[in-house]
Design goal:
Length: 218
């Protein structure tokens, strides 16, 4: 993600949480079971996201975890402990999702320049919670999670939704992302300006930037 360092791997995360509450996990055996259940259930999760109801989406993860424990031959009575550990870790701003060092000062600088800011991400309903828990919500007028809209970048419709929510023309908006197809080509195909952030590159050029702070110099 452009704003946050993302260490999200659902199967690994579930196994780590189970281990941390004292459950005996065989990663080679239990990981594939989780991934299979996740893949099978994903269409339903997408449907639940359309409700925009966090409790409806959260209950899907609860059910998935319980099914995983049962199919893995693990103690289903430990389900509350596993979910409690998972929720605590997801609220920890130094664990699964961490704010890049350039994010906050760049957002503050752009805000001080009088620019309006929005988030458009291929993410589920939890995007709002992640943005808020990491202290970033104050910077954004609009936060759009693709699964809530039923369409993802690079499809033009999701950029149209962004423009409608902002009340802007396409040529008034700069979209910054880390994926050349989803972010840059998607934005340009819908008439927006685009930049790609590559923090591993010390010498950005053209459409590339190496830090969000580079936007303050444009």
């Amino acid at each position: 993600m452009t704003l946050l360092e993302d260490q999200w791997d659902p199967a690994r995360f579930a196994m780590e949480c189970a281990e941390q509450v004292g459950m005996p996990i065989d990663r080679d055996a239990h990981g594939p079971i989780y991934k299979t259940l996740l893949r099978r259930g994903w269409p339903e999760f997408r449907e639940r996201n359309l409700t925009r109801d966090s409790s409806v989406c959260d209950s899907w993860w609860d059910d998935l975890t319980l099914d995983w424990l049962r199919e893995s031959g693990l103690d289903p009575n430990m389900h509350p402990d596993v979910m409690s550990k998972a929720r605590a870790r997801l609220q920890d701003t130094t664990d699964v999702f961490r704010v890049f060092s350039d994010t906050r000062p760049a957002l503050q600088g752009l805000k001080e320049q009088g620019l309006r800011l929005a988030v458009l991400s291929n993410w589920d309903n939890s995007l709002h919670r992640v943005i808020e828990s990491h202290g970033l919500s104050e910077y954004f007028e609009v936060v759009i999670a693709s699964l809530e809209e039923g369409v993802e970048k690079p499809e033009p419709l999701i950029f149209e939704i962004l423009l409608e929510r902002l009340g802007c023309r396409a040529d008034q908006v700069l979209h910054v992302g880390d994926n050349p197809l989803d972010d840059y080509q998607g934005a340009r195909g819908s008439g927006l300006h685009g930049r790609i952030i590559d923090r591993s590159s010390p010498s950005p050029e053209g459409i590339y930037i190496s830090s969000l702070l580079d936007l303050l110099e444009k």
